[in-house]
Amino acid sequence: MRLPKIALVLFGFLVILSCLSDNDSPNNSDPQNEDIYFPPLNSDTWETKSISELGWNDSELQPLLDYLEVKNSKSFMILHEGKIVVETYFDGHTNTSPWYWASAGKTLTTAMTGIAESEGLLNIDDKVSDYLGTGWTSAPVEKENLITCKHLLSMSSGLDDSLGDDVSPSNLQYIADAGTRWAYHNVYVKLQDVVATASNQDWSTYFNTKLKDRIGMSGAWIQTGDFSVYWSTTRSMARFGLLVYAGGKWESQQIIPENYLNDAINTSQNLNQSYGYMWWLNGKSSFRLPQSQVQFPGELIPNAPDDMYAALGKNDQKIYVVPSKKLVIIRMGDAADAENFALSNFDNELWEKINALVN
Fold it and tell me: What is the mean pLDDT of each run of 10 residues along the chain (359 residues)?
């Protein structure tokens, strides 16, 4: 039986709608994900793009590299939609040389906390003592029980940051109620104990299985004094930056929960607008820095795009992610100038050079 013309029209319209819902729906959480390149696992292969292909200012590349070399850099990478545009090594460093992430690696702990929560192993709104038991600090029990996992993620535990980086109970002392004071504190590392306890695995095993191996990273956690520090190649740091740029996905696999990651890269509390869950945020009206209770007016890195967020580590270890420009940028090395704990003047100067290249 032949269908009436109006039925054929409606049928065709429904087919078009079906295709749109599969491929072009505005509810797609990451519509540009199809354009992102992911390097294969367990391979040195990594596709590239040329500066000329992107229409960037090729004459500004060498001044940028000269500046990086003078500023004690070991490595520098720029990815555009996941493909390598710039990859340079200095001072004998190579693409197989490991280097420390310092506090840029805090964002790895952020990722793992979100992964564990997505598996139902923990809830970031739970108090830390639900997982570690009471007495993990020297605070009175009623004050200790105010501290949630989210407070550790957002650096608002209320514990005294002036006592150094030792996280033994005797060194974790009450100074303010959790959520009422922002202070950059090594106590965040207790989240690794929370994840290990909740998963019934040691931290490194859970990390390797749930993150490192799934995106092809190399590297290892090394205990250095009071710190658990991640060491890896520059390309492994870039893989993690790419994962975050892609909304927590690696190809078709959602590794870091999208909603959690979105919270992590936005303001996490009302004390430091420029801080998420251990990610530093540009484009806000004020910021606070480690070892200070001063609130500074203005944005974190004026020369950087407003939507940039960053993992910043001691002595200028950097992961910059810029969604609007489809960029992930990595810098590893010694301190560009003086020793620093996160942000330094180098960030703004470096972005002046990057802008000259990419704008």
Answer: 40 35 35 81 95 97 98 98 98 96 97 98 98 98 98 98 95 98 97 98 97 98 89 98 98 97 98 98 96 94 98 97 98 92 91 96
Is the Cβ–Cβ distance between 352 and 303 less than 8 Å?
yes
pLDDT of residue 11: 36
Number of neighbours of residue 79 by Cβ within 10 angstroms: 27
Which amino acid does the sequence have at 171? N
Tell which residue, 183, 191, 146, has the closest CA to residue 272.
183
What distance in Å separates the CA atoms of residue 150 and residue 153, rounded to the nearest whole number?
5
Q: Is the pTM of this model over 0.85?
A: yes
Residue with tokens 């002595």: 315
- Give the pLDDT score at 228: 87
The answer to whether residues 215 and 175 touch, using CB atoms and an 8 Å cutoff, is: no
Tell me the C-alpha to C-alpha distance, in Å, between residue 198 and each of 72, 205, 259. Answer: 41, 13, 21
Task: Tokens for 32, please give them.
Answer: 């540009």
Per the CB < 8 A criterion, the answer to whether 148 and 132 are in contact is: no
Structure tokens at 228: 């658990």
Beta bridge mates, 332: 75
Q: Say how far apart CA 91 and CA 74 lie, in whole Å.
A: 6
Segment holding 358, helix H or strand E = helix 345-358
The beta-carbon contacts of 169-175 under 8 Å, at least 24 apart in sequence, are: 169/135, 169/136, 169/137, 169/138, 170/138, 171/138, 172/136, 172/137, 172/138, 172/139, 173/137, 173/138, 173/139, 174/137, 174/138, 174/139, 174/140, 174/143, 174/144
In terms of DSSP bridges, do strands 309-313 and 296-297 run parallel, antiparallel, or are they unpaired?
unpaired
